[in-house]
Design brief:
Length: 317
Amino acid sequence: MWLIVIAVAAVGIIYAIHRSSHRITLQGVVIRQDSDPDKQSPISGAQIMAISGSAKGSAHSDPSGFFSLTLPEGFRRRRSVSLQVRLTGYRPVDINESIGKLYVIQMQPTAIAKPAEPDRHPPILISNVRIRYSVKTTTELDVGSEVKPFQVRNTGNVPCNGSDPCSPDGRWKAADVSKVLDAGSGNEFRNARVACIAGPCPFTKIENEPTEGGRLLNVVARAWSDSATFLVEAEVVHPMISDLVRESYPVIFGPTLSFSLPGTAEGPSIEADVNGQAIVFPLGPDLLLTWAKCTQGISRDGSKMYRCELKPGYGFK
């Protein structure tokens, strides 16, 4: 009886491993339909539904338009899959494709802008578009330097007899001295170094290399012959964090404006000439613009991706 139970369990495990190793993943991208490749911008948030008989799987496109969809067990025995792509503001897409390819799905907006009447309603022109943002940067004010001599007192040629500290070979009695330097409130050490400058320096050792980047600097030196003198030196700086304002330019294809910013960027705004008048438009957390509808996504490297599409009645110059 137990042998039957064990055999059934083993078969179940093998079947589960077999299923896992044969799972199928579909990968593709959802983009805007346009005959001009430069205007085939990625579409974020589209729902992709894969259907084959009673088996279903779904995923959403990311800011770059990419989607990855792992198919359930029911897809393994079929050679094709039906894909349904849906997103508000775009016409639905239904396709039947074979399994095992990269899927490029193009979606067409439901609202097609009507040509403006040039005489009665000329478009408001947006030109000379720039992107401004700030990033935190650290500058260092040189405060001075710290120089401190210290001595390690010891008597040479005294057997260690296992009483720590000893010389590196364990034969001779040694002595350790720790020296701590303080850079002061708000200051940090840079380029720290320590060296033996007097006494039997060949019979000495720096037990820990001085670290920098903080207010305190700790040095431990050892001597296993007669007394030796050491010197520790470092520059002292005062770090200051400030906002660095930077400017970049977007890419404009047709009615769409696209740009990306570092993940650390703060306070982005768009500067543009509206019918010849220079105006600054802070984006804010809601990405509100009077002349365009904007969306934001986060790429895989953490950078921020922005895409703004002109509203009716506006045009890029």
